[in-house]
Amino acid sequence: MTNFECKRVVVTGLGAITPIGNNLADYWAGLLSGRNGIAPITLFDPSKHDCRFAGEVKGFDPHEYLDRKEAKRMDRFAQFAVSASKQAIADAKFVINDLNAEQVGIIIGTGIGGIKVLEDQQEVYLNRGPDRCSAFMIPMMIANMAAGLTAIHTGAKGPNNCTVTACAAGSNAVGDAFRLIQRGYAQAMICGGTEAAVTPLSFAGFCALRALSTRNDDPQKASRPFDRDRDGFVMGEGAGILILEELEHALSRGARIYAEVVGYGMTCDAYHMTAPVPGGEGAFRAMQMALKDASLTPDLVSYINAHGTSTQANDVTETAAIKKALGESAYKVAISSTKSMTGHLLGGSGGIEAVATVMAVANDQIPPTINLENPDEGCDLDYVPHTSRSSKVDVALSNSFGFGGHNVTLAFKKYV
């Protein structure tokens, strides 16, 4: 693939702000117990919307990580990113200082960015005039600010970027960070995804698309990937962050290693603005590419954290893509959609799902797909329904697919 030696890349730290837990321990415990994070919306009055529930982050206090002045100048999506990044750095016991700052980079993806600030400032503009709009509106709103502010608050001066590939953004961030370390452009990367789009305008747009579930009478049953009674996805919010390090660098400081990053595949459907190509050709190629990049054969895959959105189009299409990518091994691999518990974090989903996938590899535990009561006729694989499973996980894939036809697969394996 290249004329130079690719460096090995490992995961040494994890952070998570999610609808089922605001730190790694609570998030992982929530996944294994099948905790349901979906509930009626409290962040705004949703009474005029067709969908009135979401996977909100509960009990989050940004002042645990930021002083009040700093927090006030950040949109919620950036607060999540900085907070989860600080968690991950602490988890990795990683110290950023003058000696290594230029070798530590950041890539944090988001699908929508600071939409709450945009909505609030539009109200100010309409009701009080342009002179009353905040001087911080633009820097609070723009999508790259999660990565930029994380650098400011951690001191990381290496490569810094923001991936904005809709629901694949968090996974693209992890994959791009992997490549930078692999090819020697950084020793360590802070990477993942963040989103805070549970807002009136955001919900109005997704409701107009008829993409969201409208099971308002029973929100906890609304996110039901691969089930024949699914009627749309459920919005979530939060952030998932990983610390990736070059292997020798991690070993030299005695770091704990959760897993090794071994493959990254990304493709495009080139088909439709919002719908996946029938048959999952683009998703199949992303999985195939990740396996090839990792020099792995399909029979070695133990677990797939599916994109699994609980929409009519995705779940059947992803199932078909898995069958094509893995062949007969598709019927032997454990698959689950953790979105059944957290909802769909859009650009943040790849981040928290990469965290879940790494934890599955590290702990030989597979989270369940809750609410899977009647599998769809086209969804006939092992989706680990209802309860978590103890099983050896040597190799795991994490899938993320976004509007615009973006497809990403990440491959992780046990470090040996």
Top keywords for this entry?
2 domains, 13 helices, Peroxisomal Thiolase, Chain A, domain 1, globular, alpha/beta, 416 residues
Notes on the structure:
It catalyses: (9Z)-hexadecenoyl-[ACP] + malonyl-[ACP] + H(+) = 3-oxo-(11Z)-octadecenoyl-[ACP] + holo-[ACP] + CO2; a fatty acyl-[ACP] + malonyl-[ACP] + H(+) = a 3-oxoacyl-[ACP] + holo-[ACP] + CO2. Residues 6-414 form the Ketosynthase family 3 (KS3) domain. Pathway: Lipid metabolism; fatty acid biosynthesis. GO terms for molecular function: 3-oxoacyl-[acyl-carrier-protein] synthase activity. Belongs to the thiolase-like superfamily. Beta-ketoacyl-ACP synthases family. The protein has 416 residues and is α/β, with parallel strands linked by helices. The protein has two domains: 9-252, Thiolase/Chalcone synthase (Peroxisomal Thiolase, Chain A, domain 1), CATH 3.40.47; 265-401, Thiolase/Chalcone synthase (Peroxisomal Thiolase, Chain A, domain 1, 3-Layer(aba) Sandwich). Helices cover 33% and strands 18% of the residues. The protein is built from 13 helices and 14 strands. The protein has helices at 24-33, 68-72, 76-92, 115-128, 137-141, 145-154, 169-182, 200-208, 247-252, 281-293, 312-326, 339-342, 349-363, and strands spanning 9-17, 39-40, 53-54, 104-109, 160-161, 188-195, 238-246, 259-268, 303-305, 334-336, 365-366, 389-390, 395-402, 406-413. Strands 5-4-6-7-1-8-14-13-9-10 form a ten-stranded mixed β-sheet, sandwiched between helices. The chain has a two-stranded antiparallel sheet with strand order 2-3. A hairpin with a 3-residue loop joins β13 and β14 (406-413). α10 (281-293) crosses α11 (312-326). The longest helix has 17 residues, at 76-92. It is globular and about 65 Å long. The model has no long low-confidence stretch (mean pLDDT 97).
